[in-house]
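User: Quick one: structure for sequence A, then sequence B.

Assistant: Sequence A:
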Amino acid sequence: MPILLIMLAVLLTDVCGAAAQGPAAPGGGSAPVGVSLRAVDEFPPNPVPFFRGNDRNRAGFYFNLARFVPVLGLFFLWVYSTQWIDHDSRGLQLSTELWNSLTLVVGVGGFVAVLGLPHFGLGFLALAVAYGVPLGLYVRERNGHVPESARVLTPRHLQKVAVRALAKLGINIGLGGEGRDSVIGPPIRFLGKSTSKGDDLVRSRQAEKSKGFVAAKELIYDAILRRATDVHLEPKTEELSVRYRIDGVMYPAEPFDRTMGDSIVNIFKVLGAMDITEKRKPQDGSFRAELENRMIDFRAATQGTRDGEKMSIRILDQSNSVNRLAQLGMRKQMQDKIVEILKQPHGMFLSCGPTGAGKSTTLYSALSELDSYQQNIITVEDPVEYKMKNVTQIEINTKAGQTFAGSLRSLLRQDPDVVLVGEIRDDETARIGCQAANTGHMVLSTLHANDTISALYRLIDLGVEPFLLSSALSAILGQRLVRKLCDECKVAYKPKPELLKQAGLTPDKIEAFYRPPTNPESVCPKCGGLGYRGRVGVFELFVISERIRDMIRENRPVTDIKAEARKGGMLYMREEGLRLVVKGITSYEELIANVK
């Protein structure tokens, strides 16, 4: 209303001014040069044309598109960035409240500046700084907490975004001599089957040209990020189901349609130097991959089924391997006793348990306690899972007629100090191993048995004479693997007295047990909602004393040998596991499910 009154006053002033001038001079006097004549009732011309809005051609258009569109674009980017920072910081546990507050307050300040400052250029510059500075600071912090492949706004990340955007438009390009598929997808590069001559790059290039290569990379990359040890591709009628084995338990993943699934299986068969035309007979192969400047080995095996070809892939990640006995979770006294046995000049040390109990890992850790530079250490494995420095590793080839027994017999001529045999499978390997232990060699091996005492009689069943076994054996280590509770989300509870009594524990000395959360409010970012992360060993060490050697020669019953072992201080596997339960490392339910 005031504006309208002012305009009315201006108009009235003009009118009054025009009336005061009066009409033209009577008598037909000429007007001054350059001044046009006008009627008495006309307003004088306005020297500045008036229009409503910001566009002279469209009256009433009040928006300046050249300024409004950039501000609106920054607004949507700011909204998207704040949502991403909130979600990403929660997943990485990076002070979500701090970063949310910073991006919100600074961003709102930038929009106030662009709307309030009289000069648009300065206001827009303030808005850009208010958006970019908090985002840059957060990206800098979060990139320091994630692996190189997961970092954002890096040259590689921007390169991948650009290549993917162009690929959606149908423009496929290669950068730095690499194909499009080597840039698109996860930062993992398949190298084909590894031989003595190097990596099979020809098969790698063949696989890159296959349909579904990016999907195969994403499958393996996802399995590695989830800490899976095995990937199972199982054919169904209309799809190829995918399951990961994580910490010894199978978990389903997103399946593939049958066409894409068959292509992915063929890609892994090409990488593993297997025949893609053969889908009924079982095949096996191996290949490698490079991820974040480290090499990962894979073992693939196929088997024909009623619905198609099933494939299982074992992931052998050297970075996740255990290097020392102290990392296995055993008691310090047990660890010292094992090291003392291993440093004896001769004898046989066995690790027993079912498949997947971590027996090979224990033996590798045991070898790391020895000085490989002053001792000649030779291993015979099927296949070689982890490479060790300054250790001669032999991989047997059953197709070529090479067996554990034959390789063990020949390597004894190589003057070894320590011999590791991957597994005792038959009577010949067992006898040669015992003979090697009696002739000045330390022999390490694995055996499938439920516990240490049954492993002793398993060797006798294989045909090893008791007198030979009694003089060769030094100790037997029984073991199982149990999942470790997640430190971030495990919940304490008071166990029932009946449960403690059944476990042989005193209720007065037990404050609490721990277990995974039953109804979590949110998914734990550390364990992904599983409640467990990683595994730890439960062990039972049976040391062969002189008295037990005599009992083995005399073929004494199992109960007598067990009683003598208990007198020597041996704890059963269940008793060792209860120590982990009391410490909150694992749950009682997990112990009961895996240790009988």
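Sequence B:
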Amino acid sequence: MPTVAEWFLRGLVAQGVEAIFLNPGTDTPPLQEAWAKLSMAGETVPRLVLCPHEIVAVTAAQGYYLASGKPQVAFVHVDVGTANAAGGLNDARASQIPLLLCAGTSPSVLDSQVPGARTKFINWLQDVPDQPALVRNYTKWASVLNHPEAIGATVERAFQIAQSEPCGPVYLAMARELMMAEVETTYARGPERTRPSILQGLTDATADRVVAALAEAQFPLLLTGYAGRSREHREALVKLADTLAIGITEYRGRFNAPLEHPLHLGFNPERWVGQADVVLVVDQDVPFVPADRELRPDARFIHMGTNPIQTGMTQWGFPADEVLPVNVKEGLDALLRAAERYLPSLDEKRHGGRRQEMENRHRQVIEPFENTPRIANVITPFMVGQTLTELCPEAQLYEEAVTSGNPFAYGFRPSSEGAYMRNGGSFLGWGLGASIGAALARPDKLVVTVVGDGSFMFGVPSAALWTAVQNRVAVLILVVNNACYNSVRLAARDAYPSGTQAASGFVGVDIIDPPAFEAIAQACGAWGVRVDNPVELKPRIREALDVVKGGRTAVVNITIQAAEKPL
């Protein structure tokens, strides 16, 4: 008779899950036994990817989703594994990634005659009162399986909620003895009968009203972070801006529009939001920092997205003159149709003048970076971005470079085949695992990750690199190494501009004599090199690309100048 663990695996296959990112423990043998049994019997099972640390498991699952569009599963060990993985769910929640995090729980049965019963001293230490509480702040749904026959419906419910808009992570815990229990059948309807809730688009009347406001504005601004979820999303967003001559500014999330587009106003919404009279916020959680931000008294803010007023946040505090909960692609398409209807009414002279003003603003953003004189023997994040643009614009790029991120982004211009994903949340350690998961999902693509030195260490590099090497995936990892927690340094500088630290040096931020990250790579079976001089930057990255194209993960540890104005 099949066990609950076997029904669990069958449920994942029915949902289209292709991989389970596993960090095992004493509670996971039922899953491993079920996987072995079904595999030997010729049944389809998800790929089992062993991850030596929970952070790698939960971030690799996210990268796999971003590359494939298919929901993923990470499986970790009881309360301690859940605690280690919890931070990664902060990122999955922000990026709206449908991820199922699973864990065992300590057995409750004391009778050793019952399969899976409590037999080790550790089972008492890992028996916590409320294990799901460890992740409840970051999940849409958290449940503990309480009966063997509920496994089918529970798995379906997990995926139904994870994939309902706004998508996000969910959590399921199962006791070891329950996973080992035998069940003749399980109550499951199938994914076609348990569909998620997907939002609709806009009515024609609403779309016409929004478009009219944008078309008639003096300075309309399209502000986004996550709207560019796919090439189709990005094309719709850019076409809307093009049709109505709207400035685009974005922050975090993803590249939503080509930086070279003349309407792109860069990655600093604060620079423009105070000047705009109509702001369309599309799929962005924190549009700008409102502290001391003076807005035009006539400014109108329209928020459109799957969760436009961010109901999961305790405080939010942004102007919301109109709120439009929509499926983002459907909403953009509706606005595009409305823009086409509005075109005959456009004042061409006024429209052309506004476009010219936007293009002037675009040059104000881009030219300072392009015209900045280079300093001898200094590498900047912008230079790293330029080098990747020249050598591999087709890269699928996963960036977690923190204060180096935006300066790098101004230099990197992906081609039409390229992509640019950013960590949406505030948990660091995402980039390494995410890029490995993406490479597992799309081995035909060149996957590159750019991480800061802090992000590299937070990502548990020994575990991440081992996972890449053992699974024969090749990723190019660029560490932009400023040897400090620069975001903390900048925060201290801004909080105490005339303080003691400003004069005597900042405390608790410098990473003195940082580890030789290239040597860590070599110790794990990857390729590694250090770059300290700008002359070496391009040849070393080209050499690393050759290594990656040959099937081996490469780490380039690049000594950079810390950014002073990262936005």
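Residues 381-559 form a domain with the Rossmann fold fold (CATH 3.40.50.970). The chain has three domains: 4-193, 204-370, 381-559.

User: Thanks, that's what I needed.
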